[in-house]
Amino acid sequence: MQKSADKKELVLVKPFMPPVADLIPFFERIWESRQLTNSGPVHAEFEQALCRYLGVSHISLIANGTLALMIALKTLRLRGEVITTPFTSPATLQAICWNNLKPVFADIHESDLNMDPSAIEAAITGETCAILPVHIFGRPCDIEGIRQIAHKHNLKVIYDAAHCFGVEKNGDSICNYGDLSTLSFHATKVFNTLEGGAIICHDEATKKMIDTLTNIGHDADPPHPGYGLNAKMNEIQSAVGICGLNYAETIIAGRKAATLLYRGLLKDLHGIKMMDDLEGVRHNYSYFPIIIDSGEFGAGRDELYDHLKSNKIISRKYFYPLASDYPAFERYKTHNLPVAENIAENILCIPLFHDITTNQIETVVYTIKELYHPHRIKTYHENFAVVP
After folding, report:
1. N or C: which end of the chain has fewer CB within 10 A?
2. Average pLDDT in the 304-310 region?
C-alpha cells in the first residue's frame, strides 16, 4: 500500500455532538427564561434523566470532573492521608492536594491496571482517612476487596469514575459503590456536556451538602453563604447532556464494535497485550489501550508512538509519566511502584471513538504492523487492502 503524504490526521478521540436541531428547542427555552445557571429547569431535568439512565438515586451536576473530585473530598470532611493510584490523571492528585490532604501511592495490579488491594492495605497508617481508587479506562476496581479493607480500617471510599459513564457490574451502576463516586463529562469522554462532571451519593442529606458546596456555600435555609466553590453546571451544558443521552446507547455500541474489530485484527501479534471484557461487566469502551512488549513486538512503545505520529495517527501514552512522577507530587512517592512504572513505560492508547470507520481502524493496524517483525507481516500486504 502506498500512503498518502497529505492524508487527514486521525485523532485519538472525537467528541460526540448531538444534532443542532435537537438543541434548538432547549436553547429557545433558555433564551426565553433568561436563567442561565443556578440550578435552572434544564439542569433539574438533566439530573433526573441521568438518575434514570445510570440507575442511581442521587446525582449532583458539576462544572467539570476535577471540581467534582474536589467537592466530593470536601463533602466527607476528611483530614489526613488518602491512598490513591499513581496511574491516573494529575487531576486526581490535584483534588487531594487542594483539600490539604496528603496523597499516598499504592501500586496497581497488572491484570486490570487498577489499585492492588494488598498494596492499599500495606499503605494504611494511623493518618489514613480514605481510599480514592480510579476505575482506569472504565474497568471496575476490585470493589469487594476495597470494601473489605475500608470496613476493616473504618475508611471512606471515593471512586474516581471519570471513565465509567454507563458502566455496570452485575447489572448495577458502578457509580453506586463506595461512599461517593465522581464522573467526568469532558469532551474526551464517552459521554460529554462540552465540559462537566457529576457526584453520585446515596442519600438526600449528602446531596444537599454537595449542592451547597457547589454553589459557593449558599444554602436555601439559612440563605447566607458558607464554605464552598462556584462549581455549578450551567443550562447550556445541561441541554447538551439531555440531548446527548438520547444517543448514549448508539455511542457505546459504536465504540464496542470498534473495540471488537481492533481485537480481531491485533490478536495474532506477539508483544501486544489488550484488555478483554470482564465477566458480569457492561463496558463502555472508553479507550483502547495496548501494552507493548518490545522484545516480542520488535519495537518499543515510544518508537511505535513516533511511527504512528509520522503517519498522522494520534495516540497517547496514558498514563505517562505517572502522577507520582510529576514535580508537584513526587515528594509523596515514598517507595517503588514497579507495576505502575512498567505499565507507564509501555502503554499506548490508540484511536477510538463512536464513529471511527473500519477503514480507519485497518489503517491504524496496518501502521502498527509496519514495525512488527518482518517474518510475521510478510503476508499482510496480500491479505489487507487498506485505503487511507
Report:
1. N
2. 98
Q: Domains of the chain, with CATH numbers?
A: 20-106+114-245 (3.40.640.10), 248-383 (3.90.1150.10)
The pTM of this model reads 0.93
Which three cell numbers mark 342? Answer: 512498567
Count Cα atoms within 13 angstroms, Cβ side, for 379: 3
Largest Cα–Cα distance of the chain, in whole Å?
74
Element (DSSP H or E) covering residue 210 = helix 204-214
C-alpha distance from residue 59 to each of 22, 47, 136, 193, 211 (Å): 24, 6, 21, 15, 10
Q: Report in angstroms the alpha-carbon separations of 307 from 153, 176, 237.
A: 48, 41, 37
Give just the sign of the alpha carbon dihedral 79, 85, 88, 90: positive
Query: CA 128, CA 370: separation in Å to the nearest integer?
Result: 49
Q: Which three cell numbers stand for residue 206?
A: 449528602
Measured CA to CA, the distance from residue 131 to residue 108 in angstroms comes to 14
Residue for grid cell 514495525: 371
d(CA 349, CA 9): 16
Written as nine digits, the cell of 226 is 458558607
The tens digit of pLDDT for each residue in 15-49 reads 999 999 999 999 999 999 999 999 999 999 999 99
